[in-house]
Design brief:
The structure holds two protein chains of two kinds.
Chain A lengths: L3 E4 L2 E5 L4 E7 L6 E6 L5 E7 L2 E5 L2 E6 L4 E6 L8 E8 L9 E3 L3 E6 L1
Parallel strand pairs in A: 2-11
Antiparallel strand pairs in A: 1-3, 3-8, 4-5, 4-9, 6-7, 7-8, 9-10, 9-11
Chain B lengths: L4 E3 L2 E4 L5 E6 L6 E7 L6 E7 L2 E4 L8 E4 L6 E5 L8 E8 L2 H4 L2 E2 L3 E5 L1
Parallel strand pairs in B: 2-11
Antiparallel strand pairs in B: 1-3, 3-8, 4-5, 4-9, 5-6, 7-8, 9-10, 9-11
The chains are: A mainly beta, B mainly beta.
Chain lengths: 112, 114
């Protein structure tokens, strides 16, 4: 069963700073997910990646399958980026059961 | 396309009462998941359905929790009787093809047990 660790747990930064959130997992996977959750809101999927790097606007996600590690970067951070960012990986390495194991999340606050 | 619909958005009940949550996934999504998110933690999978069959319910507390997806479309999650520690957000998610399209989450139902 997969274990997902995220760091840091809390992060406060100034507007414009480059942000990095790290995620490691224990079991080989087909794809890793980065998700965003605003207070009182539902979860929005940001990225699903199985190799290399993906970019969407100011967000960049990278993954190293061999090292079982992924990072989420935010360039030119803005107060509206303030949210909880969650890393998630399939619970098992294969089979029909493919629910996600979630990290505890990184609570990001971007101050103006 | 419409998203994953959940209701109610909020529910407050007393301990030992029963409660039910409803989820309507995106049309055509065969796979449906229920997650429990306790404050300050990441979501935890409770149950996964493929059409109307259960794929994984290993983490569902079956002495008090039950779920069904009778026609392979919408789903209901029930708690009976509720305990204080059941206070959480209950999230529903659905997937068409998780390897290519990932998951879509509903807004969740926030349950408070007093």
């Amino acid at each position: 069963k997969n274990e997902v660790e995220q760091s840091p747990q809390n992060l406060t930064a100034q507007e414009g700073e480059f942000i990095t959130i790290n995620c490691s997992y224990s079991v080989g996977i087909s794809a890793l997910h980065w998700l965003q959750q605003h207070p009182g809101g539902g979860i929005v999927s940001l990225f699903m990646l199985s190799s290399g790097k993906k970019k969407h606007g100011r967000l960049i996600a990278t993954i190293n399958i061999q090292e079982k590690h992924s990072s989420l970067h935010i360039t030119a951070s803005h107060p509206r980026d303030s949210a909880v960012y969650i890393c998630a990986a399939p619970m098992y390495s294969g089979g029909g059961a493919d629910g996600l194991t979630f990290g505890k999340g990184t609570h990001l606050i971007i101050q103006p | 396309e419409a998203g994953v619909a959940q209701s109610p958005r909020y529910k407050i009940i007393e301990k030992r009462q029963s409660v039910a949550f409803w989820c309507n996934p995106i049309s055509g999504h065969a796979t449906l998941y229920w997650y429990q998110q306790i404050l300050g933690q990441g979501p935890k999978l409770l149950i996964q359905f493929q059409n109307n069959g259960v794929v994984d319910d290993s983490q569902l507390p079956k002495d008090r929790f039950s779920a069904e997806r009778l026609k392979g479309v919408d789903s209901t999650l029930k708690i009976q009787p509720a305990k204080l520690e059941d206070s959480a957000v209950y999230l529903c998610a659905s997937s068409l093809d998780r390897l290519n399209y990932g998951y879509t989450f509903g807004s969740g139902t926030r349950l408070t047990v007093v």
